[in-house]
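Quick one: structure tokens for this chain, please?
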Amino acid sequence: MLVEVTLLTRVKTFDKPVSCLCAEKGGPNGAGSRSSATAHLRGNKEDYFMAFGDNSVLITTATQQDVVANGNSDTYQAGDGANAFVIANGNVGNDLFIGWGANDSIINNRQIFDGNGDGFIQFGSNGVLDIDRVSRRNAGQDQLQLAGENALVTELRYLGNKNGGYVYAESATLKNLWEPFGRTNVIEGTVGDNSFNMAGGAKVLFHDNALGLNLGGDTISNFGSDDLLVSTSMIFDSDMNDTVTFGKNGVLDISGSNGPAATDPAGGPGGQLNFTDQTSVKYLGSNEIGGVTYYYYGTTDSTFDPTPGA
């Protein structure tokens, strides 16, 4: 018999400005404390588990770089790994970002104008992003240019908002999966808490944890043998046997940009996934598409091979 009880917990909260969206020092990966309001009792009083922890911190394992409102034309360097560029509220000027990669993100102080509302932000023909644009005719005063290793970035995708930070990352990282799996079969959530029903044919749940951001606490139902979880950073496997078993809290703690790391189950820097039908996922392998490495996970009876013919 499953009995639901309510636990009263004391939670300390912080009001953070957009310029301070990174993790506080203290607990694993900077998280202060993890708590839940609901526990489930199975069999006896001692055998209980807690569900989602605190996924409210946005920037966890990415390096935060603040883009200041000085009105100048500045150059910012995207270092190795994941970089989260936090745009100040004000006149930042016309800034250049060099060394831009698939693991880098823009954290803006407002949602960027999206003319057709499809979640993809196309840059102008001049190769710059009008970050202050409010309409088709009003471009605003500030412009950003993102220079990758081989070419300029010309499109970003919107990943939602958390704590007043509006998140954007390269659209190519998502669109790389459209060709092998089909656009309508690839699902990506936001940095908030999402629920996904995987019923109705083979689907791919994409989790871009290499961004070094907490992607929220998501609930996944009807995850079947023909479905896939695809990440951009490996998920920690404590037994190193290609079977990732969920913790006592019943959820999958996702690694961050530095994963897999032994601290991932304690901190869940990339967010958490609650599979209503699974207690583990099997690692199926990896491949590279468009310069991005993807890691594939499925059910224990999945037959998917990410490298056929290899």
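The longest strand covers residues 280-289.
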